[in-house]
Amino acid sequence: MSLRLxxxxxxxxxxxxxxxxxxxxxxxxxxxxxxxxEYARLMGLTATQGKSAMPGPADVGAKLWEHLKRPFYxxxxxxxxxxxxxxxxxxxVGTGYLIAVIVAIPLGFLIGMSPLISRAIDPxxxxxxxxxxxxxxxxxxxxxxxSSISAIFVIFICSVWPMLLNTAFGVASVRKEWINVAxxxxxxxxxxxxxxxxxxxxxxxxxxxxxxxxIAWLVIVAAEMLVGGTGIGYFVWxxxxxxxxxxxxxxxxxxxxxxxxxxxxxxxxxxxxTFPE
Amino acid sequence: MTDKxxxxxxxxxxxxxxxxxxxxxxxxxxxxxxxxxxxxxxxHSGCGKxxxxxxxxxxxxPSAGTVIVDGQAIEGTSLDRAVIFQSHAxxxxxxxxxxxxxxxxxxxxxxxxxxVKTHAQKFIDLVGLSGSxxxxxxxxxxxxxxxxxxxxxxxIMPKIMLMDEPFSALDALTRGTLQDEVRRICLETxxxxxxxxxxxxxxxxxxxxxxxxxxxxxxxxxxxxxNPLPKDRGRIDLHRHPYYYALxxxxxxxxxxxxxxxxxxxxxxxxxxxxxxxxxxxxxVIVSPPRVVEPNxxxxxxx
Lengths: 277, 303
What we know:
heterodimer; A: mainly alpha; B: alpha/beta; eight-stranded mixed sheet; four-stranded antiparallel sheet
């Protein structure tokens, strides 16, 4: 049996064990109080049938199926399909991330190629990098005066640093001999940047971009909880206010899956630009 | 030979030391080479051989002195001076053809794709890599990679080829084959070549003249050895030639003992009048009164 197959079997066994324990832990075992039917109607299933307050895997599965059947319905501000909510979040992440790419990669090139600029900018980066992206939120809201754009700004500010630092590092550590090849061939600065430095630094740059997309996806949930309105982060908070733990669990699952897909896309692109030596 | 194609005129290289005083790798180095000549520098590590080559290539700058190539003082790198790097320095994301074509299109910017490709292919064929054009460097053996490096250097048809221990990372068998190829190509094309090596036999086989450098710091060019072996020498019967051992012993003696003690043995060594020695049967004889290297003046060397 191949390692892959064995690993798959263990994975499935772990999942089954997890679902089994979850099911057992949330099954109806509580005592049912004796009460008048009038009163029972006011109480939830927890009181009348001894059902656990925590939804079991079957409840979540059923609810998930419901969502998957109608992912894009729109019944007004507080009731939109999960597909729409995810699309909002992905659009915000995509926009903020794209702006970060446009800023970070050229700037990273500059920092990587010029020791002077590298040293001059370093203190700013060191101070700005550890700031939690959400700390920028009030400032963004105050200056931009638009909650949706503020969320995009927060995504931008959190994803710019790993890309910037990795680009600068990748560019600065291009093998000297490759630069020397370009120099002996009298290749101009711009052509050198595109034909030698960019391909040589691409794997490092892509690694930074991969870290960034992960952070951006982490941050969007928190940002949307703050700005509200739309998005998967808002959905989680809204469903918490509705006390729908089932929906919260479904949202958590979907956030994980989308995050994984985003990471996989970047991993694939990284593999495309990686060269064997 | 009256032509002075490359003229190294009093170059020095110093590095600033920790407490203000500079370390001198070498200084007052004078050396000239004729067109079509194959020159080899031999010396121990740290004598500044690679620095001399980098200065010739324009990758490094001398602390003092100038280098004149074909009547012009060099300034920076140039497509006239191709370098073959010790570590081959191929761009790993390009194929064999891509690597050579990169050099070709750097030299002739206006050429179209097809012309660049044809030209590059010609040099890939020359180094015997036909059929491997579309492979990436990672798929090639060390010897094949260095062949690509040679093809890339030759493809831009440089005035001078500079080789920095090009074969030192290869196994003995591959090294031998490549030495044959390089000698064949250099003889065919009349390529002026400046090479650095550690390998005495390599120098004897390839070089017309061998430059012996003393140990650094403060290294100097001690002696120029003229190769007495015939032009049509072959690698296989090289060691049967009556002059072979005299030549080899002379160089090895230098490397083993004289390179260390040279500064004390010959205190009045004149860097501009380095003696040329031609080892043969019996004791090596100084064939020229030390050659006078004069800046920018045609000079006749006894050859």
